[in-house]
Amino acid sequence: MSRSTRAAGRRSAPKANRSRHKAHRARTVSKAIGLTLVSALVPGSGFVMGGRTKLGAFVMTLSIGLLGLLAFVGLTKRDAVLTLAVDPSQLLIATAAVVVLGLLWIWIVVASHKLLRPVSLTAVGRLAGSAFVGLLCFGIAVPTTVAAQSVMAQRDLVGSVFASEGNSKSATRPKVEDKKDPWADTPRLNILLLGADDGAGREGTRTDTVMVASIDTKTGDTKLISLSRNWMRMPFPEDSPLHKFYPDGFYDPDGPAEQPEFYLDAMYRNLPLAHKQALGPSDNEGADVLKVSAGAALGLDIDYYMQVNLKGFESIVDALGGISVNINYKVPIGGDYKGPSPNDDILPKDYLQPGPNQKLNGHDALWFARGRYGLDDASRQERQRCTIHALVSSANPGTLVTKYQQIASASKKLLQTDIPQEILPAFIELGLKVKGAKVTNVDLDKKKNFPSGQNPDYEAMAQIVQNAIANKKPVPTTTGTPTKKPSTGKTSPAKPPAGGTEDLNDACAYHPANP
Question: Which residues span the membrane (predicted)?
Fold first, then answer.
């Protein structure tokens, strides 16, 4: 073969290659747009239709394999998913992976369209094809960006609220050896729930809401126990350093009968000021003090606390899209007692009116939980339990997915806790059990055990709690039917027999006194 013949063969090869790809191109712009859409829905198919069979088969296999892997992990490796969701370093890797996959998807769409479009294009056809590809790329970029931002919001939330054991201090947190199964030797987990109010007009922080959630770690069944804000003589265990300062409970033996600075709601602020680090180094001394004292009052070992800033509570409710509650009587918005005479009072600005299934925004939900002008503490505590019940019910998957960044941002400002990062996967699993389990209120028998807050019978209340946890039915101590509506702050809504338990679905149902 002569040199000129070989040269001619080499020159003709590219033409053959170009004609082969030309044969696979769409004949019209509309058909090219349709095939490009298919390539976006089935990544790699555009390469196959455009003649790049090997590349297309590789991309399609990779895409299907990746989807299959994600489905397999999501359905069978729940522990691994939960671990990733609460590990800041893994969340950072996940963010990078989401961005890279989004960019690759966009490249596949653009490259497929270039391969499929007609060789000869009018200006209108080129503009139409480019506009459609741009819309497809935008449609990919938006969810990719949202997904990446949501993952980063989760990382920020975990890092801001849940510190690792090595980077946090707690004088009362239990030491967990088995991080994967921390409840192996813990039949019940006791968590202190605090509602802290450090708003305008308050000197320091007071915990107007104090509850204990006692959770069965096997079933998720939960007992909610409310402590009254005006309890005095809150006890400390004999082995606690604070017991030597207050052997007969937190109060001043030489003071008057009523001592607001020795109320339960004042302990968070006053005890750390009076006895700094008496329990040991801590990131939240007030919460540690309340864990020890509330545990002694109820006969429980409190494991962890979760503290909610009441102002931030509005943000989390709004982020969830509101909560639905049944309102059985008028609940005041605002109002306060300022002196011995009713003329000194600050009257409520308005009232939440009775009605079933009322949808409340953050502002109104906060007042539903804390409004007390003209009402008693028992009705307030019940509404607080119903608010928690409504929050748990409102946290559905659809809302969490669509509003996750807003929820995470609100939660970061809302929550403070000593739950360590290392056991968050187990806590999420337990939370899912609680959502589908039975939640009941434990009645501590106010009439018998704390008709006033000056000298509550903590020993009797601890026995009620133990009976409730053991599911022992109490002997009724009262007769007759209690009123369902607090009238002037002297009575409470309908309650179970003294010392008994009541399902929150029943307690929070619509049962007005005058329907």
Answer: 56-76, 88-108, 128-148
